[in-house]
Amino acid sequence: MKKGFLAQQSEQAGQKNRRLFSGLLILYVVIIAAVGFVVKDSVDLSDYTTVKVLVSVAVLSVVMLASVIFGLVRSSRVAADGSRSLILLFPEEKKAVAERIDREAAEGKILVDEYIDAFPEGKKPHGERVILLPSYLLLLNGMGAITVVPREKIYWVCPQTGRKGSSFIVRLMIFNEKKTLYMEGADVGHLQSVADKLYQYIPNVFREYDLDTISYDMDKLFDKNREEFIRIWEEEKKRIGLSGGKRNV
To answer: 108, 217, 212, 202: which is closest to 156 by C-alpha?
Structure first.
């Protein structure tokens, strides 16, 4: 029986994470063995300070080992329907959401499927990814987690180029009824092209404004005065000819 879309994504992420944590476990063992070999003849256990340092290192080492083993075990557990990977922002039944996502993907209704970063020809894409379905916008973090945003809950999506002193080069902002979500990239042109593809299905309500200015203005307004943001958003929808009660076309 062919696996559903989410189960495939979960399995692929699990394989990637297992390789990552297996590598970390091997690296951990090698480092511990090397350090032990180097210091075994030079450690003075009669010195209180030395013993204190060794205990601290041992505790930190155990915590690191436990974290790596936990990650390795967790990456080996893949839900049959892939629903465990979903992060829902709104009150919905996870299994029902998973079934709907799988059904729409199986019916070939993936409207947009793009990685946040650009990759040269011949290199396998990886990392964060955005997928748009008729019912949901999916934000994949590249490690298996998938944030699910119902399309009817989205106000606006917008690529925002970082200004001087910013901690990001460019990021995709997803304004929705719950909060603003961010996906950071390194290629401004690529992320703008991703936004253009999303705009075919999620209207760019503020398309007549300068993006570098309006993105920052709306970002601040959304956090400080949500009602005012919605009022302006509604006015812009009417001005460009979108019906008042319909967000997506």
So the answer is: 202
Q: What is each CA distance from 184 to 48, 85, 181, 188, 239, in whole angstroms?
A: 47, 20, 10, 10, 31
Q: What is the pTM (predicted TM-score) of this model? A: 0.75
The pLDDT tens digits for 55-105 are 776 777 777 777 767 665 665 555 556 788 899 999 999 999 999 999 999
Residue 112, both tokens: 């947009």
Print the SS3 string covering the chain: CCCCHHHHHHHHHHHHHHHHHHHHHHHHHHHHHHHHHHHCCCCCCCCHHHHHHHHHHHHHHHHHHHHHHHHHHHHHCCCCCCHHHEEECCCCCHHHHHHHHHHHHHCCCCCEEEECCCCCCCCCCCCCEEEECCCEEEEECCCCCEEEEEHHHEEEEEEEECCCCCCCCEEEEEEECCCEEEEEECCHHHHHHHHHHHCCCCCCCCCCCCHHHHHHHHHHHHHHCHHHHHHHHHHHHHHCCCCCCCCCC
For residues 169 and 184, the answer to whether their CB atoms sit within 8 Å is yes
